[in-house]
Amino acid sequence: MMYGMEKSDSAIVAEKSANKGTSVPAESMEPRAEPKGNPGSQSTRRAQDRESVSQAADRIRQFVQREPRERLTALLHHVTVDALRWAFFELKKDAAAGADGMTWRMYGEGLEGRLADLHNRVHSGAYRAKPSRRVNIPKPDGGTRPLGVAAIEDKIVQKAVTEIILTPIYEAEFLGFSYGFRPGRGAHKALDALAVGLTRRKINWVVDCDIRAFFDNVSRSWLVRFLEHRIGDKRVIRLIIKWLNAGVMEAGEWRDDLRGTPQGSVASPILANIYLHYVLDLWFQKKWRSREVEGDTVIVRYADDFVVGFQHKRDAERFLRAVKGRFKSFELEIHPNKTRLIEFGRYAQERRRERGMGRPETFDFLGFTHYCTEKIRGSFQLGRKPVAKRMSRTLKRIAEELRRRMHCDVIDTAKWLGRVVDGWLNYYAVPTSYRYLHRFAARLKRLWLRTLRRRSQKDRSKRADIARLVASHWPELGIRHPWPDQRFAVSASWGATQGRSRMP
User: For the chain, what is the mean pLDDT?
Assistant: First the structure.
């Protein structure tokens, strides 16, 4: 039967209402019964959860805006069973399991009972955070980046507390030049803000800063003190302390370095932003920008990466010395080899030419190399291109995958490469980068042709064959992002600088 009853089918097949040109249809539409699924996964319940969470966050946001100096003393009651359920469905379903070995789908079996028990433990104080599973990710320089994979229950609680409590509070506190891991503020908005600042302001010197092992060296005691500036609910503070002190499991052994936050956890990004908000952002905004700098200045921070531009070299040198001392006071350290002061800006090329020096130095920020160039008429223009090391690293990974796909159907491989190129263009296709996009695509075509020719000694793949496949399955190369000043003019008023926090 066409509409025979199946396990996954509803009892009634929904029909579209008849269109008779009247206000009342000839036959009313019968609603489809809800699909069967995991307990608590029905769409209607999820929609109610989402609305409940949104209302709780809105109430906190309204209070923070109405009482900018008051500490919030009653917050944990917003973490309801509905909020935990919403947080569960917001997590990645295919994420790796933590030290407890519990995956998202495993936890979904008997979900309502698990969430009720978790809710009781959170509010009674019986909740205990589990150690994160340590995973070491190789870095391009040969080192490793330690990531912590939290247990599923810790992810749920962290997601609920972060989205319902911490984000509404601190979005009213964070400054406008902070862009990392904030709603509505992606990497391209940070890049736009930096580009507009370097071209429109009187910037002649740039301090490219890097914090050494930031997530590993965050002082937990200072972080708790910063949180207590706005959060007076001791139960929320105790929850965060439990996450910080949970430690990690590595090679079957538990350990805790008594400092840092586990990079990769749900709460880690906003905790890092809170720490740097008090250590760097407020200090620069309230002290340096208003009192210490004699000329023009601009700053853009994305998570623990930040770039500061100055009009005068003496301001830049004094800032570099001062920021090292400021960070040392809060148990952080500026990386000596990755932090530089360079001459950069609209007059850099001309002045260096007069001194018999080469082209101005470049700096990297959020995957782009920023360099000084000129327009056709000779005026200054900021150039941006993909970081060469990142392009080479990406092509190396693609080459390894192509070897694994060597004997797969060429049409399937062409479609997969098309998705890879599309993702590359979505991020790197900014103005002034077209020739580098073309260079990336050309190198990718050569890699693919070389892999096809290695399938056998009789393979006769030619460039023309690659060109036909590319024309059919790859996106067209082109700039996908507007000029920074065009997009920044539209979004600059959103999330303006607040700066109401007290600077320690």
Answer: 86
